[in-house]
Design a protein that fits this description.
268 residues, alpha+beta, 434 Repressor (Amino-terminal Domain), Umud Fragment, subunit A, 2 domains, 9-stranded mixed beta sheet, 10 helices, elongated
C-alpha cells in the first residue's frame, strides 16, 4: 500500500507539471516537509485529506489504486460521462464512431456494479457489444437469475434503456432496478415515487410477494427494451460465449432484413 501511495503521489504531481516546491506550496507545506512524503514518510490523515480535496480523489484511491494504470486504461477506451439533465451522472463507453456501446453486467459482476456503476474504470472493464437498435437512448444489458419473471429463464439477458427521470416509469411495465440495499432486480413496477416516494416491485411468478423499494435507495432504472434468451441445454457454456454467438445471429438477421428491404425498393 505504501509503495502504491508513493507512486500515485509522484504521478499526480507530474500530471500537473509541478515541481516539488510548487506542489508543496499548493498544499500548504514547505518543500522539505513535502518531499519527505514522496521519499517514504508515512502519510498522516491531514496530508491525505489535503491531497484528496486538491485532486478531487478519494483517500482509498490514493492508497490502493494504481492511478497511472487506470488513466492509461481510460485513454485506450473511449469513455463519456453523461450529465443526465443535471439529475445524475452516467458513465458509458463509445466505439470509434462515437456510438455508445451496450455494456454487459453478468451475474458475477452484480456486486461490483453496485459500487462501480459510476466509476469509468469499472465500466471500461465490463464486456461490451453493439447491435442495431431502432430507438435512441443509452442501453445496458443485465444477466438475470432466478425464476421470478417468466418466461425469462435463469441466465437470460435483459437489454434496458436508461431512465433518467423516475417519474416517467410507467405502471405495470418491466424494469431493471439497481438499488443500494437489494442489488439488481428485474421486476414489474407500480410507480409511487411522486405520491409516496417508492416503487412497488412485483414478480410475474405468483409465488413471489411484491415488495416496496424506497426511491432514496435507487441508483439506476433501466426500462425493458428487448431480451436475449438461450437454449437451457447451453447453460454449461460460459455466458460470454453464449452472448457473442447470439449477437452474431442477430447481426446476420438484421443484415438479411436490410438486404431484403433494399431489394424490394429496387424492384419497386
Amino acid at each position: 500500500m505504501e509503495q502504491q501511495y508513493r507512486k500515485n503521489l509522484l504521478f499526480l504531481r507530474n500530471k500537473k507539471g509541478f515541481s516539488q516546491e510548487t506542489m508543496a506550496k499548493e498544499l500548504g507545506y514547505s518543500r522539505s516537509n513535502y518531499k519527505e512524503y514522496e521519499y517514504g514518510k508515512q502519510p498522516d490523515i491531514s496530508f491525505l485529506l489535503k491531497l484528496s480535496h486538491y485532486f478531487n480523489i478519494s483517500i482509498n484511491q490514493l492508497l490502493e489504486k494504481d492511478l497511472e494504470e487506470d488513466e492509461n486504461l481510460l485513454k485506450k477506451n473511449s469513455v463519456e460521462v453523461l450529465d443526465m439533465q443535471g439529475l445524475r451522472v452516467l458513465t458509458v463507453t463509445v466505439d470509434e464512431n462515437k456510438k455508445e456501446n451496450i455494456e454487459f453486467v453478468p451475474v458475477k459482476a452484480k456486486a461490483g456494479y453496485l459500487v462501480g456503476y459510476s466509476d469509468p474504470v469499472f465500466i471500461v472493464n465490463l464486456k461490451k457489444f453493439s447491435f442495431p437498435l431502432p430507438s435512441v437512448g443509452t442501453f445496458r444489458a443485465f444477466e438475470i437469475e432466478g425464476d421470478s419473471m417468466p418466461p425469462h429463464q435463469n441466465g437470460s439477458i435483459i437489454v434496458g434503456k436508461y431512465i433518467d427521470n423516475w417519474r416517467e416509469v410507467k405502471n405495470l411495465r418491466t424494469y431493471v432496478v439497481v438499488t443500494k440495499d437489494q442489488g439488481i432486480a428485474y421486476k414489474r413496477i407500480i410507480n409511487k415515487v411522486h405520491e409516496k416516494g417508492h416503487l412497488v416491485m412485483m414478480s410475474d411468478n405468483p409465488i413471489y410477494q411484491p415488495y416496496i423499494q424506497k426511491a432514496e435507495n435507487i441508483l439506476e432504472i433501466w426500462e425493458y427494451y428487448c431480451h436475449i434468451g438461450f437454449d437451457p441445454k447451453l447453460n454449461e457454456v460460459p455466458i460470454d460465449e453464449r452472448l457473442l454467438s447470439k449477437i452474431d445471429e442477430l447481426s446476420m438477421e438484421v443484415a438479411e432484413l436490410g438486404n431484403l428491404m433494399r431489394n424490394k425498393l429496387v424492384i419497386a
